[in-house]
Amino acid sequence: MKKMKMVAIFLSIFTFFLSSGAYCQDHAGRIVKVFGEAKLINIDGQEKSLHIGDYVHEGEQIETSKSSMVKLLMNDDTLFHVGPNSHFVLEKFQLITKSDRQAVYHLLKGKMRSLFTIKAEKDQLKIKTPNAAMGVRGTEIVSDVYMKDEKLQTDIALVSGKLEIEGIDDKGQGSVYELNAGELFSARVSEGKSNAIKNAIKLDEKVLQQLRGGEKSGKLFLHDAMKAAGQDITARFDFSSQRPRFRRKSEDRAPASVNEKSLEEDKHINLREVSQSVKGIHENIADSIRAAVEKVVESESDAKADVETEMKALSIARKKIKEVRDDIVRETADEATSKATDIILNKGDKHFSSTSTGTGISEIAREARETGSTFAKKLAIEKLEDRAASKVQGQVENEIYNKTMETVETKTMAKALSAALAAAKKSSMESGIEMNSDIEKLARSLAEAATQKASGIAADKAVREASQKAMAQAVKEASQEIAERAARIAGDKAANESVRKTQMEIRNRLMKGNIMEKSMRLPASVQMDQQRRIDREIQNTTILNKE
Asked: Could you tell me if residue 478 is inside a domain?
């Protein structure tokens, strides 16, 4: 009993660790999107190109090149967008549960956007730059680290929630700065002071709206949002009119938390972006799709003539098959009749050696029909394969044409759709827009419209493949049909001829053979009775043959 209790306790603890996510994971996050060229540097200094699905581990670094971007999803559901010409370091990541973790991220240079969807406790999450450190709980932050006047500068804009930034004020003392949503903080390295923190300003409403649009607006980073709003990027910001709001750094004060409503909105921002409608798609995506589809259709413009050429060949084949069909049937019937008669007479010899007088004539007559039919069918198929294997019966010409065109249009549609989807994906990436089901629907509709407009058009290869396949099927069907027709004709002829010859042969043997000699020793009444029986058997055989 005690052992059972220990096992139950162990299983309970093990189940708790599994359900809570307390088990060890060998990676901190994974790459969910890559635009352009980017590389991952591991703790040993080895570099490799980044691709979608790659894992990122504690201590590794991400570097992006010009016009590139990386989207990173951490195991605690935190999202990072690392912009062009950026250097991002995952200094620390320890996950117990999604709400109980320790992480330190470091932006050495470039642009970064971060979304913390799950609340954190005091001092759990930090973002560092060369001249500032942020204590994070649940916020959406945009950060830029760049050179200005040969000095390193950091700009931090808060899109939602609240944020506390640690740094050194103009007096060289440690301070904590409170930043509200819609505000911008800036710090630079000055002469004689390692981290001199500037004051804050309220972001222009146009810039803030661009930032809040996220991937949907295509303005993920502060620099891009300012440019879209028409602000002077080189001048950056004027902090001279703003009052500082510093307070002395306090060890027991935790970063301000974001309210529940903002947190819920931030958490689901990506779901809203993925489900955006076609109305939000740039018109250049649709133009790219149309151009790609039209290019495919135009490249198929000469294929209709090839289809007509194929059909002329099929028409010639039809005439050829008509010429050989009658010969096949006639020759098959004659040969089948001859062979069937020989077999029937041989069987008759065996039969007469073991039976009396005319018994069994009806059985032989029935076998004549079956034997003739079997030989006719076999010979018809052999002759057809020898003389008409590469020809097509004319009556299936329309069916072949329809199958050919159906296959051709299907392949053309597939080509157009493939080109449309590729163009949509490429154009979406260039525009910074998520490739979603709405864009795919647009691509499909444009591809279908273009294909219908150019109905009957197909590639040479598609025509040949479809024609060959249809021709092979038609030959098979035609072979079977002609064989069956020949079998019927030959079977009837073979049966009639075989029965007639068999009747004559049996009658002659009865009259002249051993059976007749034995019969002559019998009384006259018995002979007359046997003769009547023979006449009845012959009469029954004739009736059976007519049926």
From this structure: yes
